[in-house]
Amino acid sequence: MNQRASLVTRFCSKNDIEYLTLHVPISRNERNYFHNELSYEKANESILATIKEAEILYRECGFKNKLVIVYHLPSVITIDQIPSLNKELKFRILEKAEKNLIDFYLQYKDYFNSFANLTLENVFPKYFQNADDGNYATVNMFHPAEMIRLKKYGFMVTFDLSH
Q: Which of 47, 66, 83, 91 is the most buried (most CB within 10 A)?
């Protein structure tokens, strides 16, 4: 069991925690946009690692309720692409990332559905200025109408107003 899972297990057991939510870490490589095969592979590895950690925590803590795994559908563009960004372009950018996520979900859902629910969470656009890696922005689903259509594949949807 990895060190973080061990620490969380001890905390949950000592404090009688009934529910647990894990966020999938997003490894950003700002020089490579999030709509290429390497980026999808990294995203899948990150989701799978979180699922495996959730399985350990569920088993070791004896949770009665499924754990919730929260994921943000990532897509990165350069700052100079923002002026031409409209609804159609945004959804074309997100289409491949979404297809990759759906394929991943359909491939692994039988593995994790007994102990966890995967949920997609909204993310408001963010802008980053970094002298070393260049300027970039995230493009994501942030309105419930953009996300709710994924429920037909089995995704839960979380709308977080703090983003």
A: 47
Among 8, 13, 41, residue whose Cα is nearest residue 27: 41
Distance CA 68, CA 125 (A): 24
The answer to whether 63 and 16 have CB atoms below 8 angstroms apart is: no
In 11-152 the beta strands, taken as DSSP E runs, fall at 21-23, 67-71, 76-78, 116-121, 126-128, 136-138
Q: What is the pLDDT along the chain (163 residues), one digit of tens a residue?
A: 578 888 999 999 899 898 999 999 876 554 555 456 677 888 899 999 999 999 999 999 999 999 999 998 877 777 777 788 788 887 887 888 888 889 999 999 999 999 999 998 887 777 677 656 667 777 777 677 778 888 888 888 887 777 5
